[in-house]
Design brief:
homodimer; about 625 residues; alpha+beta; Molybdenum Cofactor Biosythetic Enzyme, Chain A; Molybdopterin biosynthesis moeA protein, domain 3; 9-stranded mixed β-sheet; 6-stranded mixed β-sheet; 15 helices; about 25% helix
């Protein structure tokens, strides 16, 4: 048996240990004014001189001696012997004590007349009005904003002493290749330290990423020793689990003290904290989402306790679109996508796994499930911390169903019309369920050609709605992809790879085999299932299988031969009320536009003959008004 | 008569003209991944390869052929002939189809035993699970966040095509010196284009600042012609008012069309929009706050209409601490400081003038008063857009009264204890009024030494509160500053400069003159009033006056001679409930700390003998328990 985590600390306890064990190192640095936004003032900033340094005119006009204007009226104007013509900002010469606006003067023969007496110091900006020499402009702790730089420049400030912290980041792992290098089989790009550097730099940290250290305790120890010497905080990435090559804990123990290893937080459980020469060493788990959690929930609060400003936090209340299970005893952080449907914010959890990097990319927020909570029912109102601009939510259409490159192209074009499309890919049936519970705006569905299903009715009943509208995006050619070419008689000789049950392509394949009288179990690999057509193509290209079912576009993108067998309809399904939504109208125009059509033609493999047609489901489970006018050539 | 604004457009109308006249130039550029945060994706990002490219292990364990484990139980363990020892992330060799966790195996003699059958593909991450080759990772329009960079690095992305916009910024004005140069008399640092560059760069613009152009229409025209050629948007700073040297409008007309000049917005009225070769030219007013308004309310919305992300907007409801007057017909933007007093947010307007750069530096938000509104009563709830982290509000103590360097030093130190101090300087009486209406936490007051007032009671009645507590910060020496030295007999010979009525130093001076039997009007310049002691010292140093009253610290900081005549007490006055506030306790400890004392000694001019003493006002208007134990030496 290998070692396991001896104990898991609670998140609260771990954070308390982290914050109280490491007082502020009070490091500072200087930055140029133009690069100072977001930084925290460490050396109070004082004005280098008074502004204005002398009395200046606040108006375009003439400088006067106020006592010489006394008694001037419309009836008895005063012509001035002493004056100076000034524009706004000019010095008021010492012999004058007021400015009369040019509009209130009458010029004649090079002299000026006034018809009202001037009060002493009127329209004069006294020396030091804006700021006085040595006056405090920014106290310690001020977080510099863009508009502050104007005042700072005016007052003579070109560089600013700011809070600084040096963070050393050590990537470990023999399987890693550096960012920018294409990984070979079994290799992984070392991306967690890239993310750590970008994230902590945003807070104002000066980050040093050390070269990748292979899983060799001596080399890890050497690098860690150096990093502790050179930095205020060290992050060591990976090697914190319990595998045979996880040396981080023992290396920390050999150089200093281990404060904790293992916290009841998900993702992020293997997080580790050590203290070497009084400095904190934080062990980041290798899984990207776990590393993110540790950066956001451990590293960031430590820097905040040292005076660095937190990232802006927008919290909204969203209704949970589906149940969310949580492990009791663990503080859990779950990526959430928040969309606005009608007047309500709907939150949809994204994959919770440590691997699923795309889930935080696609989510626009996350929720924190406290340790005692076992989960939430669908419909629960919960707090979501947004990771994007809150204003973008109202401009986002939210789709759940089956994705296709045609939808990705649509998403790209939608942005040019000010729309965002957020789409997840759990499949047809989850899409229909979400559509029925008003948890998405539309369900993009891949429907087998009509001949493979007696009726769409049973499928559509998953939505529970009876007023569905179908917007046709494209028909997609479906067939058998292979490296070598394929004939139906090969089926029982070659290594086949399949898609999961209940996928449209599997339905087509099952129907075809039955019609040909072939027992699926005779097909070598028929039960070997992968996610979808993209994975089928990748498996064939990489030699794991000889043939499988996928779309013509995917086959050609992977350089595979393709034998067409059927087609699928790619439809955007909505509840009919959605047709009145201006965003959906924009989308419909977009789908019908020549530009979108041209883009799909460029991708290839689509039949666009009824693209943009709106249809409904009739009593016999058929889409009306019309079936595709003509099938693509080559289908049988 | 000089020209005036011919017409003022409404803000709405001006924005409509701005947005509709200039469609998106659709400029793009490439940035490195590490510098991509906050940028908007212009070229959709696709995965360069599948991740993982091959099947890999999701656990530390052994790779097995699942069919060889069938039937394994505790009673009938199966010893495996074929297996491979794997760590998490290792390739699962093609001959295996499942992974058994190391904890569920028993090793003996180099072979492994399992006691449970393995399901096909268990603990195997299939090729392409995270992302498939050519899969869309980021659609056009996605705003890149720090954590996105991890996924992008993993998926092979090193540079990203992003929205770009080139903004040319032209400073004009013969009175300007470049940022970093100390201005001579009548000169001003060219800071508005610095601020414009910093602000627009934050949005993702590539800014070019052109060298300062003097007020010469031909040279302005040449620079503008070049800038229009080289950029998508041109800002031309100043020269937009109606003075004799305001050439911007005529230069724009000579090269293209003027769309508008003059908008009913404050500050920012002289804003100008032109169109040259189809490109927008925006004329920024010269006053810093007016320039800020035009950057935030015109330039930023134009970039947003071109797809650039808005800055995060936090809006809070705050109760207005004092009445706020607005010019009906003008959309007005007013800097506001928001503080939390008890459970309530209180908003205090800061100077509205175009000059007052410090008002946006000290404010943490602003409010937009729509054109029809004439103003708001004190107590009105209004929307404030925050310009700082909302979390900082609860950590901020808010003072209104009279400022002194001793308070600035306190503010700097407070940040080390996690506190911010926001203080404004309208004087003693406004501070007392605010204290009474619960619109500030404390009023820092400069009180004339007891001998100059029969009772503090009348002064304190301005607060309307009768439960005031006084925390003594320091006693400040007051006297006559001069370049040449000063004797009481000089008073009627020299040029004197005074502080305003109702200031403590003026009270002291008036009392002293009366006791000496001197008529104030005999003193040359006695009625020439400046803001406060700092301005007095500056006026003397710059030769505008020979002598005036100020504090010993300010005199010595300005290199002036000083004849002490009295002292003032610098007190922090609070309602007694505030004594229970933990933030105020922190502050009291800070004032009593040796470090603070040492800092005040370093500044000089303070008597610290009763620093940190808490007192109350007794029936006879005296502070008890004690008056200062001993007056500083040299006072009479």
């Amino acid at each position: 048996m290998v070692k396991r985590y001896l104990e898991l600390r609670s998140l609260d306890e771990a954070l308390r240990l982290l914050i109280t064990s490491f007082p502020n190192p009070r490091n500072t640095g200087r930055v140029r004014l133009m690069e100072s936004v977001g930084r925290v003032v460490a050396d109070p900033v004082f004005a280098k001189y008074s502004v204005p340094e002398v009395n200046i005119s606040a108006m375009d006009g003439i400088a006067v001696r106020s006592r010489e204007t006394i008694g001037a009226t419309d009836q008895a104007p005063v012509t001035l012997d002493h004056f100076a013509r000034l524009n706004t900002g000019n010095i008021v010469p010492p012999e004058f004590d007021a400015v009369v606006m040019i509009e209130d003067t009458w010029e004649s023969g090079g002299k000026f007349q006034v018809r009202k007496s001037a009060a002493p110091w009127q329209h004069v900006r006294p020396a030091g009005e804006d700021v006085k020499e040595n006056k405090l402009i920014l106290p310690r702790g001020h977080v510099i904003r863009a508009f502050d730089t104007g005042a700072l420049a005016t007052f003579g400030i070109t560089t600013i002493g700011v809070l600084a912290v040096r963070v050393g980041i050590i990537p470990t792992g023999s399987e890693l290749v550096p960012f920018g290098v294409r990984p070979g089989p079994g290799q992984v790009v070392e991306s967690n330290t890239v993310m750590a550097q970008v994230f902590l730099s945003q807070m104002g940290a000066d980050c040093t990423r050390y070269p990748i250290v292979p899983d060799d305790p001596d080399r890890i120890r050497e690098t860690l020793r150096t990093a502790v010497k050179e930095n205020d905080l060290v992050l060591i990435s990976a090697g914190s689990s319990a595998g045979t090559r996880d040396f981080t804990e023992s290396v920390i123990r050999s150089l200093g003290d281990l404060i904790f290893h293992g916290v009841a937080v998900k993702p992020g459980k293997p997080v580790m904290l050590g203290k070497i020469n009084g400095k904190p060493v934080l062990g980041l788990p290798g899984y990207p989402l776990a590393a993110q959690t540790v950066l956001r929930e451990f590293a960031a609060p430590l820097l905040e306790s040292w005076g660095f400003p937190p990232a802006p936090r927008f919290v909204v209340k969203a209704r949970l679109g589906q149940a969310l299970v949580s492990d009791p005893g663990f503080d859990e952080f779950v990526p959430i996508f928040v969309g606005r449907i009608g007047e309500e914010l709907i939150g949809t959890p994204h994959g919770k796994g440590g691997f699923a990097q795309m889930s935080t990319v696609k989510a626009n927020g996350y929720t924190h499930i406290p340790a005692p909570v076992e989960g939430y029912e669908a419909g629960t109102l919960l707090d979501v911390l947004l990771t994007t601009d809150p204003g973008s939510i109202g401009r986002t259409l939210f789709f759940i169903g089956t994705l296709d490159p045609a939808l990705e192209e649509l998403a790209n074009r939608a942005h040019d019309d000010g729309l965002f499309i957020h789409a997840t890919n759990p499949g047809n049936i989850p899409g229909l369920l979400a559509l029925g519970s008003n948890s998405c705006h539309a369900a993009p569905l891949v429907l087998p050609a009509r001949s493979f299903l007696t009726s769409y009715q049973p499928l559509m009943q998953f939505s529970g709605a009876n007023n569905l509208a179908f917007l046709h995006i494209a028909a997609v050619g479906l067939g058998i992809a292979s490296l070598e070419g394929f004939d139906i008689n090969d089926l029982t000789r070659i290594r086949f790879i399949n898609t999961r049950k209940d996928t449209p392509s599997r339905t087509v394949l099952d129907t075809l085999l039955a019609s040909e009288g072939i027992d699926p179990l005779q097909v070598n690999g028929y039960l070997q299932e992968v996610h979808g057509p993209q994975a089928v193509a990748a498996a064939i290209r990489n030699g794991f299988a000889d043939a499988g079912i996928c779309t013509s576009g995917i086959a050609s993108a992977n350089g595979l031969r393709f034998v067409p067998v059927a087609h699928e309809d790619y439809e955007l399904v909505v509840q009919k009320e959605m047709l009145a939504d201006s965003r959906f109208r924009t989308l419909t125009s977009l789908i019908r536009s020549p530009g979108y059509r041209a883009a799909l033609e460029k991708i290839g493999g689509y039949d666009l003959s009824i693209t943009g047609t709106l249809r409904g489901l009739n009593g016999s489970g058929t889409l009306t008004p019309c079936m595709p006018g003509s099938l693509p050539s080559g289908y049988r």
